[in-house]
């Protein structure tokens, strides 16, 4: 049972950072909605501190997701094959070589590679606004609502990126790099 | 427009509007890099990543610059947060739409 380093980085980028961000988004939306509406009971200091840490962690995870995607995984995805090379090692070219799969690149990757960046921008803004206002967001309902809207749209953007990332990896998985042996045949 | 007892909303409004403008800048720069060959080449900051490296770095630079400027101008003020929120939301929604390839290809 083996994995390649490229497959591991794809996992870290998509299921690690991307998946974690999608999961964390739901929590942030619920907390911002429940505790910071004008009629909500006042949030305890420790709840406010927790949401600060939560939003900061989300911002860090979102940036790690897009940066690892753009600067580690994407160069392997878009690498140009030499003549007569096996396209299985060149995901972008493999997708483009077949009319049945070209859309996963021309629509999927082309959208994903840009829309994903809206997530870290939005959540960094949300974290900054929460740091600045904390519980006084209750008194700024328009500000709270727009922060919530940005977090919701960041969830949609991350969802689009996650969906296409997963499908592209199904149709043209990243291969190559050194091999990591997880289990030897003799260890059954 | 300061309201007694309530902290000014200018700092929050600056962050929100800057995020909208930064997101919109990302979509516009991405379309320009795709449509204008010379600009696309200019956006290759890191060759293995191609124009995406310049598109995203430039958009982040626009976002942070606008944010710093608006924060400097608005931090002690209360501003019309409803209009600013609507503008920021519109810019963000447009960004999602303009990064969608079939719509981006219309330009």
The geometry of chain A reads as: elongated
Order of H and E elements of chain A:
EHHHHHHE
**Runs of chain A with pLDDT <50, length 5+?**
none
| Pair with the biggest interface | A-B, 37 and 40 residues
- Tell me the distance between the termini of chain A: 11 Å
Q: What structural class do helix, strand and pairing data of chain A support? A: mainly alpha
Strand content of chain A: under 5%
Please tally the helical runs of chain B, counting DSSP H or I stretches of 4 or more residues. 5
Sheet with the most strands: spatial strand order of chain A = 1-2
Number of domains of chain A: 1
**Annotation, overall tally of beta strands of chain B:** 0
Helix percentage of chain A: 55-70%
Weakly predicted, low-confidence segments of chain B: none
- Radius of gyration of chain B (Å): 16 Å
What structural class results from the helix and strand content of chain B? Answer: mainly alpha
Q: What is the arithmetic mean of pLDDT of chain A?
A: 92
Question: What is the average of the pLDDT values of chain B?
Answer: 94
The main sheet of chain B comes to:
none
Radius of gyration of chain A: 20 Å
Instruction: Tell me the helix content of chain B.
Output: over 70%
Task: Describe the structure in your own words.
The complex is a heterodimer of chains A (188) and B (107). With 188 residues, chain A is mostly helical. Chain A has one domain (2-187). Chain A is built from six helices and two strands, in the order βααααααβ. Chain A has a two-stranded antiparallel sheet. In chain A, α1 runs antiparallel to α2. Chain B is mostly helical and 107 residues long. Chain B has one domain (11-104). Chain B has five helices and no strands. The radius of gyration of chain B is 16 Å and the shape is elongated. The model of chain B has no long low-confidence stretch (mean pLDDT 94). At the A-B interface, α2, α4, α5 and α6 of A face α1, α3, α4 and α5 of B.
């Amino acid at each position: 049972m083996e994995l390649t380093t490229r497959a591991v980085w794809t996992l870290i980028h998509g299921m690690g950072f991307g998946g974690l961000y999608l999961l964390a988004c739901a929590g942030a939306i619920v907390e911002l909605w429940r505790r910071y509406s004008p009629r909500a009971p006042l949030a305890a200091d420790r709840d406010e501190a927790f949401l600060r840490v939560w939003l900061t962690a989300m911002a860090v995870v979102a940036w790690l997701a897009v940066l690892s995607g753009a600067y580690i995984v994407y160069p392997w995805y878009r690498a140009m094959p030499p003549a007569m090379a096996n396209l299985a090692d060149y995901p972008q070219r493999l997708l483009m070589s077949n009319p049945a799969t070209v859309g996963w690149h021309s629509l999927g990757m082309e959208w994903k590679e840009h829309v994903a960046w809206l997530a870290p921008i939005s959540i960094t803004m949300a974290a900054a606004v929460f740091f600045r206002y904390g519980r006084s967001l209750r008194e700024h309902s328009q500000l709270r609502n727009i922060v919530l809207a940005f977090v919701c749209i960041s969830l949609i953007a991350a969802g689009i990126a996650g969906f296409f990332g997963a499908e592209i990896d199904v149709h043209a998985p990243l291969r190559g790099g050194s091999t990591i042996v997880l289990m030897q045949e003799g260890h059954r | 427009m300061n309201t007694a007892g309530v902290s000014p909303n200018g700092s929050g409004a600056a962050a929100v509007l800057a995020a909208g403008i930064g997101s919109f800048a990302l979509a516009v720069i991405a379309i320009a890099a795709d449509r204008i060959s010379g600009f696309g080449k200019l956006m290759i900051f890191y060759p293995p990543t191609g124009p995406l490296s310049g598109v995203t770095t430039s958009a982040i630079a626009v976002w942070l610059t606008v944010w710093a400027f608006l924060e400097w101008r608005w931090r002690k003020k209360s501003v019309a947060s409803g209009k600013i929120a609507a503008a920021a939301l519109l810019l963000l929604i447009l960004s999602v739409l303009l990064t969608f390839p079939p719509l981006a290809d219309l330009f």
